[in-house]
Amino acid sequence: MERKNQTLVKEFILLPMTTVPYFQTILFIVFLILYLFTLVGNISILAVVSMDRRLHTPMYFFLVNLSFFDIVYSSTTVPKMMIGLVQEYSKISFQGCITQIYFFHLFGCTESMLLTSMSYDRYVAICNPLRYTIIMGKSTCFQFIFGSWVLSLFYSLTHTILTSRLPFCNINQVSHFFCDIKPLLKLACTDTSLNENLVTTITGFMGVSTLSLIFLSYCFIGAHIYKMRSAHERRKAFSTCTSHLIVVFLFYGPLVTRFLRPTTNDSLEQDRQSAVLYTVITPVLNPVIYALRNQEVKRSLKSIFFGISRQKLSP
């Protein structure tokens, strides 16, 4: 009888980052600037690699895909977060909430697999440079991307379907600035131990397996660099890996701690804080890290920029 008297939730209320009006205004401006930089920076990389044939290599093929995922990954959550800073309540329908969960985990999982593919690309380029173009051909690159999409699709669908089948009654205030699985599980009016175990198990497996493959790639890379006799060659090989390692650290660091923590009120608050790193900060830093540390990208940017400038100045 109690179950019959409960009202099923048709929409959720997302909590803002802060309820202080002054800080809301500041955060909105900061996040808006960072989001615009994310779009401009990653779109610039997409344009540069597309326009410069010298960059049509496997390394930049993966970089283009990383820039694309940074755009869509950030766009899944940041606009809704900014709306919550300018409105008293940020509402989202049940269907919209489930859709956001689906795309958030789809793009996030695909990006993690893409970073794993990029580590293998660096391994082949450093440890087997003479066969690099043969091993990392177009078909191999497309197989990596296609495999990442397919596995991420099943991963995201598993979490989305299980979450969408839960009953949500009466309480509809999500302790987050976007819809995610753990905050929603706290609102379900049924036992969610199975869902919590699956989230920890599946996400933990994906995180550990991809991180292990990245770690294994860099173990072989490190061993190969150690055997190099030339200090110049060692520095050159190490510099090609630094950007990728920084991005891996920024992406995996908060995600691993987030999903491996038990679901408590304190952990949910920590999740809200760490989510800013991988939804706002990391997407805006990725193009900066790769563009500023990559001489080929900087040369292409300059040549394209000055080429457009000359065309405008010429009669």
Automatic annotation (TrEMBL):
SUPFAM superfamilies in the cross-refs: Family A G protein-coupled receptor-like (SSF81321)
Superkingdom of the organism of origin: Eukaryota
Membrane-related topology note: Multi-pass membrane protein
Membrane-crossing residue ranges in chain numbering: 22-48, 60-78, 98-120, 141-158, 202-225, 237-255, 275-292
Keywords, alphabetical: Cell membrane, G-protein coupled receptor, Membrane, Olfaction, Receptor, Sensory transduction, Transducer, Transmembrane, Transmembrane helix
Gene3D superfamilies, per database record: Rhodopsin 7-helix transmembrane proteins (1.20.1070.10)
Keyword tRNA-binding found: no
GO function terms (MF aspect): G protein-coupled receptor activity; olfactory receptor activity
Localization (cell): Cell membrane
Domain G-protein coupled receptors family 1 profile: start-end pairs: 41-290
GO cellular component: plasma membrane
Family statement drawn from the similarity comment of this UniProt entry: Belongs to the G-protein coupled receptor 1 family.
Name this polypeptide is given: Olfactory receptor
Organism from which the protein derives: Hymenochirus boettgeri (Congo dwarf clawed frog)
Lineage: Eukaryota, Metazoa, Chordata, Craniata, Vertebrata
